[in-house]
Amino acid sequence: xxxxxxxHSWSLPIxxxxxxxxxxxxxxxxxxxxxxARPALLSVWRLIAFVSGIVSLWVAVASPLGTRDHQxxxxxxxxxxxxxxxxxxxxxxxxxxIALLHGLPRCFRRRVSGLLLQYPSAHDFGRIVTHPVLCWxxxxxxxxxxxxxxxxELGIQSAGWHKVEHVCxxxxxxxxxxxxxxxxxxxxxxxxxxxxxxxxLATLPCDALSAFLVFCNxxxxxHYQVADHLSDLSPLGDQECAGALxxxxxxxxxxxxxxxxxxxxxxxxxHASHGATPERTNRRLASP
Length: 288
Description:
single chain
């Protein structure tokens, strides 16, 4: 492919770019404040992780993945995998809530902190929404639901529903990775020993879907039968590549952290993390 053709395939979604830049700026402001007040709280690598997550989101919608997902199912699949398995965990690793909270004006920060720390209903809602079972079910429902042919065709044919689809995948990714990363404010509901099982079970629906796309021997989504193809791949070959990409990426994205968590649990250093209670930690972090 000529270089100029690759460059022209990039787009610049103004509204999304401005929103992501604003979020990154607020996070940077909050991170800088926290680094000055408590240097050990948020390290530089967390800032790098958050910015990398924001950049990954932008790449998903502005790169050729976003401009060619109507021609290739493989590009469409790669776009969603980038959002769910790369951008979402990187954003959570950046400590988004605590940094964004401290990046806001002081008066607003005090109101949000009071809501988080004083009202039991806010705690209860947070516990329910971030429960591992609900997070697993929500992410699985989004992945499987948006690949149902009727809903898939709705998203691919309508620009508005396509944006809703992206938001759903981002929200599902953040929910899915929340129990694994456990950023502030988190109350650990399950033992860390259960996280490898949580991640392993999450691969099963994706494996079933990817296997169906690879071995069904028919084009599932009629849109790609009539779309203008940008490569020598047939619609069925494109679908098989998309399914294989999903299987490989999900396997590594979920099982690699599971192995890392297991190694960390078995290491002697893991026993040094039983100092403060989650409630005390949350109150200390949320203080203005």
